[in-house]
Amino acid sequence: MARFGIEEEFVFLDDATLVPIGISDTDRESLADRASQGRVLAEYLTCQVECVTDPVDTLAEAGAQVRHLRGLVDEHATTRSAIAAASGTAFATTGSLTVVSAPHYDDVASHLAHITRGHEVNGLHVHVEIGDDEERVRALNRVRGWLPVLLALTGNSPFADGVDTRFASWRSVAIRRLPSSWSPPRFHDLDDYRSQVDRLIELHAIADAASLSWAARVSDRFPTLEVRVFDAQLHPDDTLFAAALTRAIAVTDDLRGSHVRIDQLDASLWTAARHGMHARLVDPASAAVSDARTLAGAMLDAVRPALEEHGDLAFVEDRIARIGSDGTGADRQRAAFGSDGVAGLGRLYRDGMHSSHDEH
């Protein structure tokens, strides 16, 4: 059974306006000290934190850590009349937020220049442990073809600058401005992967391998495949759904899709970001064009044995059914805002931070 880990990014918002607000180093350190499972870390901007689980074997273990960490972040926000939001983008912005003071972030901010002003994005990253170096690259080749389907299922950033962007994942559009973003190319082997990353560093497009912005990559810190296509997810079960699918794809060694052209994958990522589950996407098995719902079913069929082996099948099937009935995170955000404006959206964010299993 492959172990996995989860990284979730959250943004602190003013509870009346849903505009991002910064927190102090002292507050962030206090949060970190209270984590009894996993870790709370600084993120790029002072309005953000990142919560990281320890490596786990099961969704139950992951869920316990995710809920514990979310509870700490939610409690901290509540005591300061703020909201901690698990959304790919904040509802509104001042465009004047501060980068956390750290050598790496200072270098990133200097490199991105004006892009930093609009880079208020929050993601979900899933790491799947794969011990063999070459197998990690093969797993990356497998997962790349399914990245648009994964994004269509999990888009959760419909708002930016106080307006509906009409995108399911506006975060994906913001990420597109970064070097080495969206779909990775197909790699022949580990040497090919390393040489292509080295070329990006030589070009000064990125400072190091840790700065890669591909929607999936081989981790430079851990023996893992890291899938980064997801927006931050509203509800813990949304996060666990993304993690279960990621692990199943990573370990299903007969999955096809590694030969899909990068321009077609990037186009599919755009349509997934724009239309969510109503998108038209390239089928990674046939390279034909199909709809997101059909491809989600095909993906589920392809990874069913892995889901069964891990005990995740019933959970994943239930979540896909709920997306069919309740919509994606982006759909639920729009519904909450349409029902009661900023107040309704704020309640949706709060509910996702302190909810128990299977609540909405």
TrEMBL record:
What's its catalytic activity?
Answer: L-cysteine + L-glutamate + ATP = gamma-L-glutamyl-L-cysteine + ADP + phosphate + H(+)
Write one Pfam family the protein is assigned to: GCS2
Q: Which GO terms describe its biological process?
A: modified amino acid biosynthetic process
Entries under InterPro entries matching the protein: GCL_type2/YbdK_subfam, GCS2, Gln_synth/guanido_kin_cat_dom, YbdK
Enzyme Commission designation: 6.3.2.2
A single GO molecular function, which one?
Answer: ATP binding
* Keywords linked to the UniProt accession: ATP-binding, Ligase, Nucleotide-binding
The entry's function note states: ATP-dependent carboxylate-amine ligase which exhibits weak glutamate--cysteine ligase activity.
Concerning its family, UniProt says: Belongs to the glutamate--cysteine ligase type 2 family. YbdK subfamily.
- Name of the protein in question: Putative glutamate--cysteine ligase 2
